[in-house]
Amino acid sequence: MRKWLSILIGGLLALGLTGPASALTLNVVDHGNYGFGAFGLLFDGTNVWVSEGVGGNVIAQINQNAAGMPLTGVTRTLSGPGCCGAMGWDGTHFVSSSGSVIGFFDATTGATAGSITTAVSGGLNDGLDFDHGEVWFGPDVGNKFRVNGTTGAFVGPQPVTTGGGGFSGIERIDAAGNTFLIVVNDASSPRLLCKTDLVGNFTAATDCASLPNQRYEDLAFDGRFLYAADVFGNRVDKIDLAIDGGSIFVPSGPGGVPEPGTLLLVGLGLVTLAGLRRRSRK
């Protein structure tokens, strides 16, 4: 009994399951090629949408689950304050931002549905995420800011510092009990995708991975995969992120494939139960 327990515990330690994960890697699992510079991205709970060109107000729906991620032919034309930089989704509306203004747009018509004004100045915004009732965004190649999604007031320390250089895409992600930001460092060559905490701390050697394409801008997340808009390459990439070699987005519910660490934990539990059963019989 003790021998088997030692083997299983050793396996857990070898997989790094007893300590905090850190090293970030990525794998592009699919991509869509389009006839325009892909810029803003959002996920509306069903489909990914992409804006056509830098600052473009026409957004096109993507079938991100089909091979090659083709466009579905459904588009919206946004109009009103805050149009049109990076994009997000608040659960009901398309969200976009330009300079200090964050705009909300009707998901059916694309018409303006309201806006908020922040204390952030700057031009076109190339990274935006609406999450937990807050907006994470920032002017081109600048720092990122965190504001209340209703009032536009700053939340927490400002700006959200993410190290030296400029940053474009940003997504807040909650996975495996951890909350962090994924940001695109667009001042590095090649560009980097970095995992930071909510105030922007990261270690480039372990928390960043090199991006394969020319110019990633906005990001979107569907709960499983990350999507990155490559404006120069006229494409959107579908990316699987991994920390310490294991995907951080594999769902734990029905239909999810167990990670090796999960299988080891199950095995440990079965061996323990077997040992208790033997003792009970004796």
Q: Can you name the CATH architecture?
A: 6 Propeller
SSE sequence, one letter per element: HEEEEEEEEEEEEEEEHEEEEEH
Helical content stands at 10-25%
Mean pLDDT: 80
Q: In angstroms, what separates the terminal alpha carbons?
A: 15 Å
Fraction in beta strands: 35-45%
Approximate shape? globular
Class based on secondary structure composition and strand pairing: mainly beta
Give a written overview of the molecule:
The chain has 282 residues and is mostly beta strands. The chain has a single domain (21-245), classed as 6 Propeller (Neuraminidase), CATH 2.120.10. Helix content is 14%, strand content 41%. It is built from 3 helices and 20 strands. The chain has helices spanning 2-14, 204-207, 260-281; strands at residues 24-33, 38-43, 48-52, 58-62, 71-77, 87-89, 94-98, 101-105, 112-117, 125-131, 134-139, 145-148, 167-175, 178-185, 192-196, 208-210, 216-221, 226-230, 235-243, 246-247. Strands 1, 17, 18, 19 and 20 form a 5-stranded antiparallel β-sheet that branches. Strands 2-3-4-5 form a 4-stranded antiparallel β-sheet, with no helix packed on it. Strand 13 (167-175) and strand 14 form a beta hairpin. The two termini are 15 Å apart.
Which descriptors apply to this entry?
3 helices; mainly beta; Neuraminidase; 41% strand; 5-stranded antiparallel beta sheet; disordered N terminus; 282 residues
Gist?
The protein has 282 residues and is mostly beta strands.
